[in-house]
Amino acid sequence: MDNYNLTSQFVSIMNVHSTTPFASPFDSKTNYVRMYQNALNKYYPNATYSIFQLEGYICSQLVIQAAQQALITLNNNSIISAIYQTSLFYIKDLSLGNYVTNCTQGSRTVLFADYSNTLNYFLSYQSLWTYTWSTASCYGDTSSITRPVLFAQSSPISSSQGQVANQYTAGVVSAFNQFNSQGGYRGRNVQLDIMDDLTSPDVMLNNTNYFINNANVIGLLGYFQSASIAASLPLVNSNNMPFIGAYSGVNFLRTPFVSNIINIRMGNSDDFLMTLSYIRSYAITRISLFCPDSPIFDDFMTMLSANNIVLESFGTYVLGSTNITSAYQNISRGNPEAILMTANDFVITSMIVLIRSDPLRLFSSPSTMKFFVSPAGSSYNIATQLISYKPKADYTTNVFFTQVVPPFSDNQLFNQYVSAMNAYPSMIYNPVSLEGYIVGRTITENLSSLSRNLRGTLSRSSFLRNLYAAQSLFLDGIQVGDYINSCNSTTTYDRCCNQGIKTIGLSRIPPTATNQTTNILTYLSPTSITLPSSQCFVNADSLGYPLTIGIVGTGVTSSSSSTYRYIIGLKAAFYGKSIGSLGTIFLKTYEDYGSNVQNTNALRLMYEKDRVIAVVGQSNQYDAQLIDSYSMFNYTINFIAPQSGSLSLRSPFRSNVINYRSSITDEVSAMLLYMITRSKKTRFIVLANIITTSTVWEDGLLAAIDLGNRNYNTPPKDTIRFTNSNSVDFISTLTSSVINNNVEVIIILGHHSHCVNIINATRSFNLNYMVSNDVNFLGLISALSNDLLRPIIPNVFSTRSLPYDLKLISSYPTMATYVKSINNTNFLISMDLDPTNPTLYTGAFGFEGFVVGTYILQILRSLADTASVTNGRSLSVNIDTLRALFMKYAFNIIPSTQGDIPVGPISNACQTSASAADCCNQISRGVYVQNTLLVSDNKSPPSYTQFLNQVPDFLYSLTGCGTVINPIPFNAVPLVVAVTCGVILLIIITVLIIFIYWRIRVFLRVYKAPKSGLMAIAFTDVQSSTMLWQQFPSEMRKALKIHNSILRSLIHQYHGYEVKTQGDSFMVCFSNPYHAIGWAIRVQNDLLDCGTWPSELILGSYDCRMEWDKFKNVIFRGLRVRIGIHVGDAEKVVDPTTRRPDYFGTSVNKAARVESIAKGGQVLVSTRTLTYVSDCLNNIETGEKASEEQWLKEYKESLDDSSNDNSSSRAESTKSSSIHHLKSNRSNFQRPVMKDDIILYYRAAGEHSLKGLSGKELLFEITSERLSGRVFEEKLSDPMENIELDYVQPINSDALPVVYNSDSPATPSSSTSVAFLRYGSLKIVPS
Prior knowledge:
The chain contains 38 helices and 51 strands. It is an alpha/beta fold. Helix 23 links the parallel strand 29 (about 745-750) and strand 30 (about 770). The longest helix is centred in the last third of the chain and has 31 residues, at about 975-1005. The chain is flat and about 140 Å long. Mean pLDDT is about 75; it is low at about 1-15, about 115-125, about 490-495, about 870-875, about 935-950, about 965-975, about 1200-1210 and about 1275-1325.
């Protein structure tokens, strides 16, 4: 047979076998083949190995050996005679002969070749088995051939799933080859016969009929496509044909039980239910489904109905098509957090891309949607397709793959699989080929057992009997089965099971993965979930529904927010803790972006969809809606430990609210007591921020009036209510009150931003400030840490409901437990936090969250021990009953704080008694007061951790549910005169200091201004700033602050002087041109490195977009600033009004003209500038510095070009004078030490006419190695320059378009024109 021609006819040759007389010409392990390869490489180095050349080489070697035997006479007769006389010849390890009378046969060997690994080279086959007969016989005796043990597969080789099918088959064959190399089944090789079914049910049925009627086929394996399997299964079952390892999880292969069906992978329903365990670990409760409209969909719906699981929505598509538009729209009708998907590779990839890009804007948060994929194809193929969209779009985030095979890890089974797959170098290691390998190993392990136990003939029935007798097979420590066949009817399944692997794992695409990465999937922890060996299928009752606590607030994912710290504390309390028979607790978080509407929607979603038991840590800005929850919803929401001291949450008593913090009345009482007894101050005023959603600050103001009069005989001197702490009227009123009342202390009741504004407005009065526990101290301390307000920090006092002192942690066992929990490395890793710096996540708010979380665990554990709540496996009550029971137990439990935190009992007994005093819903029984930290050096700002690590100065203990102590008499009259004089003296000193400070700053701003004469002058401007201000006014305000900050900080570093600014343009002068060049390059680098540019500018503006060079390095991001520099003489003139130096002269004009020619992101200099700094520049073309002769020559040529009369002696005299002047001045400039990591280059930017100046100027671009990839093209006059053109190719005529990038080789295949807005740039698709 012409094997070469046969092989070349097949696109996929996974199933091609052929006989061949010799080993592969590529097989260098065979001695005679290696000898042939050496000879061919020596004399024909460009030739390709082939079977014909190998056979010709063997023939020539036979002739050479025969000629050597003939010795004397060489002719036809002598050669032939020598062959028959010698009879047997050896060419290395190949024998030819015996050549005897009536037998001209040479080779006594036939190889049966497998072309499975010939994807790259034809005929690089491997021998499946070899038939060799005795040299005494001329021809082989077929009766002596040992027949192989044959298994068969109908596979969709030439369909869209062909690649996946080939990967699966490679795994099976590699397991068979491994078994055969060890002797096979009693000396017989195990082989796989494959036929293509084209994904057609009819073709699969014909293939199956052929296999069944071939008595040599022991079993069928690896069938694809559930619809095709359903058509062939009746024929398979009626013939009791072993049907092993179908690549499908449909339920009809599992129930009802049929003994000849042997499943390896887990079923779809089990896959789905066990995936729920993973999904719930992410506190996800709203799930949608996407799958084909096939038996798979029926399986899912049956399973969901049986287990009372309600989907948010579902979408299906017609099996075999790629039209997913209606499925996309149907899924969007719900509000899912995650989508469970099963389909082929292309369809899944298309749906993920479609939902993430969301062209119809149907989803609220498509970028955060989680996808749990149970692929009908290959997870590796899907991952590769999603990665291919990088870096233009990242669709790989939050995409998870369920894996029905053991995880890739350093275990014996995986190592054996890798060893076996080495025979297929073109195949990558992936879960599909691993599943095929496990199927092949299951078969060979059963055959190995049969070879030891079977006395009769191997048959289909004996294969099944032995498997069920063994029940479980162990593949290098991995269990497959229980295979149990002990039921006697189709209605009893308790003792029947044909399920193999009972493990499911979850993997995801790591952020750093590329298509060049060896392993593009990583397994998550836990790496797998495994069913007990006694359980054939997943019992949904054991999963139940998660016990969920909800929290909604502002900044839930921002590490700088108090809500974030609070959440970390809650999670630390819950981490690794079980709730008896109820399993674990989950925390559901929602971001409200500071919006009442968003907060209300989140509460509704948590209670109606997420089945939360209670909401914890509600912010004080939502007190009103918390109180009105009775009327807002048709149910009562349980609120645990709101972050508010509002009296309205305590009186009148509300049974659905449990407060952990002390009230605002208790806090104000503690403030007054501390102020009077410790600080010895009595003249105070109270400022309260009035907000419509809460009365907490108004409550505090009224408490200060009442307590000051009734308890302490020291009423406030004034009370001021405000809504805007920055308004001129409020500041004026405040200042007047402070002066008129000779105020010593201000009690501020409001948000931390109000505290900062008030402290800033009154900083010159040397006051003390008292702030509430409800303030975000992280924001307050950060805002007070600037140079202006840092001296005020020691005068700021705060209240807290919980102590937090890491210095004396031994005194607080509860705090020690909290810190230990936060320092748990496993916890930090599971939360995606930095395990090397756990102190980033500690703090007072985190401690409060931890204490509250511990209290919630106490309540739930009491519930779990209640027989009426559980049935031993899961909840036996509905969610409404559970919520009511939760609050009932909450009022009967005193939080466990190890005796170090003052807490008291709470009670709802007033609901059954006549006395309101029998009710209390506040746990805290103390208020701590502390003074903020004064940093000793008074230079570096205090950290939040330093602030929190202070020992509280004072503990105000409460008796009962928030009662106050008796009045304390105090006479403040003797202090009045002394304090008044002190305040006046302080005011005089403060005014004097401010005046001196202002004069010093004026001097510091101008002392670096160059004197008249030679200097470097630089101008800057922002590219397309006018258009940017029109399109993005708010974003440009932020961007301009960043721009100005960077330029000004570098001006100071490089000893420059800021002459003036106009809009976004700067004029800067430098005494040393080296400093000017260094400053310009650093400006470009720092603008590029800035990570705080508004994202709207980056994504929505063409002139601020990100660009990469050919090495994938970012070279443009954010505002693009052009810079022009010229060195020349200028005159210094001091402005009589501003008293700031300004500069005039031709050199100033020339520098401005050079800047106007530059492009955004470019630094241009004049020829004269280059000559001054050329000894620190490398030519970007040669990489070498210019010699002194070269730069003098270039400067002289520039003078020649600018001279109108080159022949005149006057012009020559002028040039000589200019060159002498240049040499003289150049030696006066001291070159600074440049940074080692910045190498500067220059390149010519061409000659340009400078507006208003005669002649042309040769300009040069200065750049660095990092910025050298920037390309500056001439500016387009086309008004449509910002428009990008993309091709859109619909999936089909009914599907939504899939967008290809403009650099894609794809071409439009549809006449449909589509235009839409993406990232602020119009995409136009031509018809």
